Amino acid sequence: MADSKTLEHIDQWVEDNWEDVVKDIEKLVNIPSQEDLDHAGEGMPYGPGPLKALEAGLEMCERMGMKAANHEGYVGTADYTGEHDDKKICIIGHLDTVPCGPGWSQDPHKMTRRDGYLIGRGTLDDKGPFVVSAYAAKYWHEQGYQFPYTLRFILGCNEETGFLDVYYYKEHFEEPAFIMSPDAEYPVSAGEKGIYQGVFTSGPISDGKIVSWNAGEAPNAIPSDAFVVVNADISKLPTCQGIILTDEGNGNVRIDAKGKGGHAAKPEGTKNAIGMLVDYMLDNDLVSESERQFLNLQKTLIDDYSGEGVGVKAEDDLFGPLTIIGGTAWKGDDGILHQSCDSRYPTTFSCEEFEI
């Protein structure tokens, strides 16, 4: 354990460098870095935003005295070379973020300070923690301390949507002797539930009343806001808490729902806006019979995030209960309805069991 003099020195160093820490967090947060495959290309496999964030992160690491490298835009590495370079002790973070969605009281890509907090997309997941980790390593580097093994930072760019950055790293580099990630609650998480994502799809619908539907921002997020447009007479529709009706003309009504969003891994206390739309449409007979069958499935999925309704309830002593949520819903150009799901499952369940 560090002596009191060392701890005092660290505290003073943090105070002296804190504004630089915040500036580097701000620089990364102000870069929109959601996956954008429509504009992906050579050197930017996840789109221009993740690449720009990767370049900014590597520039920061180089400024701190690390040996930094961009590996074809898939992933970055930054090293403090140790006495033995044959083994790597790694810290992995990610600079991509989930879509921002509605409900922000400010521009999510303009970091601000408010009531002692840093506000902006990525301040917590995972740009802020990555920057703080880099500065922690920088402290020891400035003291002239050489680590016994090379300390490597792995800069991921695809954590939120596929982990292709991790797959790339494993294909091109030896696995680290030890690795940790500043992307979980303090003090330490030694494991994570399995993740399964899938899509429920309706059969062909020829008699539908749903005109258009594209709800939710990402499959791994519970939407706080969602809307659907249906063929209906607005004068015959009742008011309902959290529901806003708008006459779209031509016999169409837009139905907006305002719920309470959250991350798929922690659905407790949320209210899924897609589920609110499903309930309203079912309760007021705003769907055809074929659409009703699919909405009943959605209701079963969204009403109970334990998975019991869709036959996948499970739990264990290490990770607790399985959770499953509906994240996005849409109607395709072919008229077919879709509902994504995201499940976090314990050791007593497996990915294959979802598809049996």
TrEMBL record:
Its EC number is 3.4.13.-. Belongs to the peptidase M20A family. This is Sapep family Mn(2+)-dependent dipeptidase. The lineage of its organism: Bacteria, Bacillati, Actinomycetota, Coriobacteriia, Coriobacteriales. It comes from Enorma phocaeensis. Keywords: Dipeptidase, Hydrolase, Metal-binding, Metalloprotease, Protease, Zinc. NCBIfam families: dipeptidaselike. SUPFAM superfamilies: Bacterial exopeptidase dimerisation domain (SSF55031), Zn-dependent exopeptidases (SSF53187). The keyword Zinc applies.
